[in-house]
Write a structure and sequence with these properties.
mainly alpha
């Protein structure tokens, strides 16, 4: 998964919330945006929860708008889609939206 620019900047603000995810916090902190980072399914689970929790936190995004909020919202959607595909592959289901069953 390629995470760059504002997405990476926003995600790095929340690496403390990833501290018990088998080193994911350190990998995100060291990640520079190239090449795409390899993620395990459980990394995607963690990132999906972190983005959701960040978006729900009024102290972080009190107005529920603005560039940072919109960026995290978009990143959360991308992560969720990738996570869903990973679990579908594991279950033997379709691997991409619209894939034949």
């Amino acid at each position: 998964m390629l995470i760059t620019g504002r997405e990476l900047t926003e995600l790095k603000k929340f690496t403390g919330m990833m501290c018990e995810a088998f080193g994911l916090d350190g990998r995100i902190e060291r990640y520079k945006g190239t090449p795409p980072t390899g993620l395990y399914r459980w990394d995607l689970d963690c990132q999906e929860m972190v983005t959701r929790d960040a978006l729900d936190d009024n102290a972080v995004y009190p107005k529920r708008s603005g560039p940072g909020y919109e960026t995290m919202k978009w990143l959360g959607l991308r992560i969720r889609e990738l996570r869903d595909r990973a679990y579908a592959e594991m279950d033997g289901g379709p691997t991409a939206p619209g894939a034949p069953e």
